[in-house]
Amino acid sequence: MMQHSFAEVHYARIRLVIVLWMTAVLLAGFSFGGYAVNIPRISILEHTARNLYFHVPMWFTMMALTALSAWHSLRCLQTGSPLRDIRARAAAQAAVVFGLLGLATGSFWAHYTWYEGTNIWWNFDPKQSMALVQVLIYAAYFALRSALDDPVKRARISAVYNVFAFATVPFLLYVLPRQMESLHPGAEGNPAFSEITHPVMRLVFYPAVIGFIGIGWLLYHQRVRAARLAARWASRTQPEM
Length: 241
What we know:
The chain is an all-alpha fold. The chain is built from eight helices and no strands.
């Protein structure tokens, strides 16, 4: 009981730190109407450039969570631990959430910069399309899991798939889009985002990346706790043979 109580207190403290951290990030990002940390007027982007504090960190968070998920899948293959399978699934679930949020914020950002005044919300930009493919690859991970009834077989097969799914992340989200013509910064023929943004924005951007990864960890941790409680409840309610 004491160990469990200490873990709960430790988790509560980490959660409080992350909440306070993200509160500071949000206040700095919106900068009290633009008076505290004002950003320069960037061509085309204007003040929609503040979406940098949200859209890009969400993809960093997704990549961090997919790495965590793949690590637990590797450990699951090595040890056969059901807990490793639970952790791999929980991290993948959180990763998909941030992937969907990244797609949504990217769609809104594109609409209000490149396509303002039109009905265009999706233009099949290479980076946009590959990000969608990446999310679908992880959606297929859950479809695979739901198709397998045996828990041991499900854990091992989905772990193998998850490791290969993670191998596609750097190529689909970073390497390949940079080799194609795209409206995104850093793609072929476009300057990197660091070249078109003011250094003052980094004072908010980097803490935002840390903060969103922290939120991703909180979501992952909550999913693990929920799954373990569900497993314990199922074992208690299962009728004896």
